[in-house]
Write a structure and sequence with these properties.
4% of the residues lie in helices and 52% in strands. By secondary structure, it is mostly beta strands.
């Protein structure tokens, strides 16, 4: 399977329009919808700090499997109740490539009638460094001009937009990431480059009150990238006392998963998910692991999209 990873890396470096999913994926997306939609900044009614670590396809590439670390914070300023602000720091490593950067987000929430619903409109700006480690590549033709030795790093910027409709019980969001298709050229003769592909996301979720202490929350995430099949994440979780949860996830072409978590003192949250690989990598992968740690710094006014 290292040959598979090498082939993917060569496609990127040779510039043969490798437009598969470039942005990191998360099974626990419903715990932090802000990272997939700038318009969701401030929608939880708290200053929320969350850290997520994901290890994809553990064991498949002898310690070189994709890993992601992400730290996000978003808030609704008390003096400006219709404004949401946020930032995301990310580090995503896939074999010889690494994406490291920061995204700054702004959202404006428009109240809709007297029912408590709001429509958020958001913008995000991302600055990132794209690294390629040529020493990790082992081509059949060492003289291939598309392959270079050593590590090259390029810095670029791109943008994100989104809309997010929400209230205490539901949310629906649409967003576009990497809007400008920024190009990173890794060789002076332009034979080796990476172009960021637009990512389209649709998210939706609804929280049903089964009784005073039990809630049921189905949710869905639809991801679309040019030259790749549309992917669906279908999720359902049960919450007890709005403090403990257990759920299942199904991701087309990839995995089925379980997730669990708890809230402590209405401020600290911890969530864990395990994905069992169902793709062709299932014979060599022991699955994917993801952990999320979060803390809320102010009292919740509402929690339509998070816990």
């Amino acid at each position: 399977m290292k040959k598979v990873l090498l082939f993917i890396a060569v496609l990127f470096i040779a510039g043969i329009s490798a437009k598969g999913q470039q942005i990191e994926q998360f099974t626990q997306y419903m715990l932090n919808p802000f990272i997939l939609n700038p318009a969701a900044a401030g929608s939880e009614g708290v200053t929320a700090l969350k850290f997520t670590y994901r290890r994809q396809w553990a064991g498949a590439f002898n310690g070189e499997e994709p890993t992601t670390q992400l730290l996000s914070i978003n808030s609704k300023p008390q003096r400006f109740p219709n404004i949401g602000l946020g930032a995301v720091l990310f580090n995503d490593v896939t074999g010889p490539s690494r994406r490291t950067g920061i995204t700054l987000d702004y959202a404006y929430h428009v109240p809709l009638g007297s029912y408590g619903s709001k429509l958020g409109l958001g913008l995000g700006a991302t600055v990132l460094q794209y690294n390629i480690d040529g020493d990790m590549l082992n081509p059949n033709d060492p003289n291939d001009p598309a392959i270079f030795a050593g590590t090259e790093a390029k810095i670029g910027a791109d943008g994100n937009v989104g809309a997010f409709l929400f209230d205490e019980n539901y949310y629906v969001g649409v967003s576009v990431f990497q809007l400008f298709n920024t190009k990173f050229v890794f060789q002076q003769d332009t034979t080796g480059f990476v172009r960021l592909a637009r990512h389209f996301y649709v998210t939706a979720g609804y929280k049903y009150d089964v009784n005073e202490r039990l809630q049921f929350e189905p949710s869905v995430l639809v991801k679309s990238v040019a030259a790749a099949p549309v992917q669906f994440d279908i999720n359902a979780r049960i919450l007890y006392d709005n403090r403990y949860w257990l759920g299942v996830n199904f991701r087309t072409y990839d995995a089925i998963g379980i997730l669990a978590g708890l809230a402590i003192n209405d401020r600290w949250k911890i969530g864990y998910s395990y994905d069992l690989t169902t793709s062709d990598l299932s014979s060599i992968s022991s699955g994917s692991h993801e952990i999320m740690l979060g803390i809320d710094f102010i009292s919740k006014e509402s929690a339509p999209s998070g816990f």
